[in-house]
Amino acid sequence: MDSSRLIRMLLDDGWQLVRIRGSHHHFKHATTNARVTVVHPKKDLAIGTVRAVLKAAGLLNRLYSS
């Protein structure tokens, strides 16, 4: 999965971009105050990285349940 698709998934779920430091995009969720970081731009993120970001964002279970 590329970073653009992962970022789009986060934004669609209500995450907001709060800051950019170099290639690291930091997102915060408005209701939970959780934070995740995604490296952008990157064409192919490692599967472990994608799973870790989705798990931290609470999206991993939703992907497998739908």
Give a structural overview.
- The protein has three helices and three strands; from the N terminus they run H-E-E-E-H-H.
- It has 66 residues and is α+β, with helices and mostly antiparallel strands.
- Strand 1 (15-21) and strand 2 (24-29) form a beta hairpin.
- It is globular.
Topology:
Layout: H1 3-12, E1 15-21, E2 24-29, E3 35-39, H2 47-57, H3 60-65
Antiparallel strand pairs: 1-2, 2-3
Spell out the key features of this protein.
stress response; alpha+beta; 66 residues; single chain; Metal Transport, Frataxin, Chain A; three-stranded antiparallel sheet; toxin-antitoxin system; 27% strand; endonuclease activity
How is this structure best summarized?
The protein is 41% helix and 27% strand. The chain is of the alpha+beta class and 66 residues long.
Count of discrete domains? 1
Order of helices and strands: HEEEHH
Portion in beta strands? 25-35%
Low-confidence stretches: none
Structural class given helices, strands, pairing? alpha+beta
CATH C-level: Alpha Beta
Question: For the report, how would you describe the main beta sheet?
Answer: 3 strands, antiparallel
How would you describe the shape?
globular
- This entry's quaternary arrangement is single chain
Distance between the termini: 18 Å
What CATH calls the topology is Metal Transport, Frataxin, Chain A
Summed up, the helix count is 3
Major beta sheet, strand line-up: 1-2-3
State the CATH architecture. Answer: 2-Layer Sandwich
Q: Roughly how many Å is the radius of gyration?
A: 11 Å
Helix content bin: 40-55%
Whole-number mean pLDDT: 91
* Strand runs, count: 3
The name of the CATH superfamily reads: Hypothetical protein
Keywords: Endonuclease, Hydrolase, Nuclease, RNA-binding, Stress response, Toxin-antitoxin system
Protein name: YcfA-like protein
Pfam family, one: HicA_toxin
GO molecular function: endonuclease activity; hydrolase activity; mRNA binding
